[in-house]
Amino acid sequence: MDTKKLSDELSVSAQVMPQDMAALKQAGFRSIICNRPDGEAADQPSARELESAAFSHGLEFVHQPVVAGKMSDDDAVQFAQTLKSLPKPTLAFCRTGTRSISLWCLANASTQPLPALLGAAKAAGYDMSGIVRRIANGGRTPTHLADASYDVVIVGGGAAGIACASSLLARAPDLDIAVIDPADIHYYQPGWTMVGAGIFDATSTVHTMASVVPSGVTWIKAAVTAFEPAENAVILEGCRLVKYSRLVVCPGLKLDWERVDGLTETLGRNGVTSNYRFDLAPYTWKLVRSMRSGNAVFTQPPMPIKCAGAPQKAMYLSADHWHRQGHLRDIDVGFYNAGGVLFGVADYVPALMEYVRKYDAKLKFQHNLVAIDGPGKKAYFTRTSADGPAETVEVSFDMIHVTPPQCAPDFIRVSPLANAAGWVSVDQGTLRHNTYENIWSLGDVCSAPNAKTAAAARKQAPIVAENICVDLGLRTRQAVYDGYGSCPLTVERGKIVLAEFGYGGKLLPSFPAFILDGRKPTRAAWWLKERILPPIYWHAMLKGKEWMAAPDVR
To answer: Whole-angstrom distance between the N-terminal and C-terminal Cα of the chain?
Structure first.
């Protein structure tokens, strides 16, 4: 664990993991402050998990979540009070340590000289030049001054952001483009279902961010905290400002684990797992291959969620393994869905129902997971019906695969870019913001009523790139998005129902039915998912090669 000492009382570090607590205790720390809000990244443990691990090693733990760059005077005062109350020495951490050390600098701004604070930060390896204005200006950020300026700024370095940057460069190589993302790692998240079934190795879903950012694009390794669209400015952690001519917003969505009471304390143990987190997908496979009998529960929260088919994919692949091993007759499989249908596009339901019957899976609609008792192996659902009040249903499990509730990231929901539901408000055809004409959005965070899948982002990225070029006068015909999304429903090892559809549930197959009929389980679709789509993702989509993704222009 790489800790940086600021004083005899306080050190800071990047993300702490539960398994780090023993080493921190041995290093002499007596208390921990976590300044990172939950749900910022898919591989991030929750504060409750960290608190439990800290307490088990005799460390005091305080969670003071601070959205990066939004450190108010009150936040700094609270940090100082918390630090004063804890046994020393204390370790404070966030994603990189920048928030924690920024809080420390702000908390001490009135009692220590600025050079002393900056010197201590520099000695610890942190550059606080971006926060000097905040300290000197009483926490106020002058929006008329910028640290950098670009033709196009893209917020988010996931599938949508990298694909959009590459598609822009393919059309206009001279554009000055910046991608803003704090993550060191870029994940191929569609592969995690296959990891949870023992088909893919988890490492195959990981590349470094540096390796996927297109050559010629500036990568700003920081978190965005706020938007000033009237000033064409993005505010970063440390209160730095980046100006833009055009802005693309695609930071993905937030996995809101905390909305299920008791879930974060038990994730990764007690038979509780989820393919929606990189570090937990291997645990899914561990549970599946070790299970011989008992109750297997699979959940799906209210929409919208990323890859709406993923919750049932986990069920099908698990049940298929048990079927092949001869254990399925001793395992009760239940699919608890907060919605009222198995899949939102009716054309694919008959094929899926054949597998529901094959695996004798019990479908429980209008059941929303609200609480979980891991050690007690109990899950609690709110069941609703049209003709009666909601009631709580208790379900025992030996294994439970949880799909977490999902929402827009906090810094998006509170921004002027968001609609009433918290998503970036866009025209569903052009993906242009409904209020700010030089802003576009795509991927999971935008308000377009399409399925939130990587396949949707693959289609959206060229459309946004094309329309930005129209706005720049480099193209003449506006591109239109038809809502395309794809969900390869892995109904068994070796067969997939390839759901492809657009707005209103309209079927949008990529291949003629005589080659691949997506309404039926086929080996061809499995071959596409297992062998073809991963290299297309890494070597085509992220490289601006728009194979079968050319935009529809008017």
So the answer is: 55
